[in-house]
């Protein structure tokens, strides 16, 4: 059996080494800010630098195009854009809930996951407030196969959910083995 000190929860552990320490919270917050910044910067470049709304589509690589889509719906076009203010309210409530989880998190992957989801959700809320729709532009395709058009915020959300699932799987595995 490991001691509380070995677990990083005893009084002898340095704050930076404790899994639920401010360090991991800070990493989650920095992740949220990074996702938000890259998302908003990429959208500004797409809209005003490349003027993608006037172009419609621009091939970048054989499997990647920038394709302008004003998404009035939710993820993958669900709910057809009805209830813009409801989507904003739900997103902001989710962000508040995730901030609570982040501030209480004792695990690095959960902190990173919360940061990615928070940054992505805020990025899409900013779009809904500013443009009335989310700016989507990344379009992957190969041959006849085509993926939904999405943005960096969506990527932060999906990667965050993936990290959270991975953490859950690893935690379950640790509890069975330990």
Automatic annotation (TrEMBL):
The chain crosses the membrane at residues 26-48, 85-102, 109-126, 146-166. The active site is at residues 136, 154. Its main location: membrane. It is a multi-pass membrane protein. It is an enzyme of class 3 (hydrolase). Pathway: Protein modification; lipoprotein biosynthesis (signal peptide cleavage). The keyword Cell membrane applies. This protein specifically catalyzes the removal of signal peptides from prolipoproteins. This is Lipoprotein signal peptidase. It comes from Parasaccharibacter apium. The gene is lspA.
């Amino acid at each position: 059996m490991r001691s509380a000190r070995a677990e990083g929860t005893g009084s002898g552990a340095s704050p930076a080494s404790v899994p639920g320490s401010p360090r991991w919270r800070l990493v989650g917050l920095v992740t949220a800010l990074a996702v938000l910044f890259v998302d908003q910067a990429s959208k500004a470049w797409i809209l005003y630098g490349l003027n993608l709304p006037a172009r419609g589509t621009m091939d970048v690589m054989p499997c990647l195009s920038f394709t302008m889509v004003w998404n009035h719906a939710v993820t993958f076009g669900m709910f057809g854009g009805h209830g813009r203010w409801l989507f904003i309210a739900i997103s902001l409530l989710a962000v508040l809930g995730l901030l609570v989880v982040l501030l209480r998190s004792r695990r690095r992957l959960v902190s990173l996951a919360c940061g990615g989801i928070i940054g992505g959700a805020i990025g899409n809320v900013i779009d809904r407030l500013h443009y009335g729709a989310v700016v989507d532009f990344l379009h992957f395709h190969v041959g006849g196969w085509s993926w939904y058009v999405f943005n960096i915020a969506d990527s932060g959300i999906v990667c965050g959910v993936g990290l959270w699932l991975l953490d859950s799987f690893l935690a379950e595995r640790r509890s069975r083995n330990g």
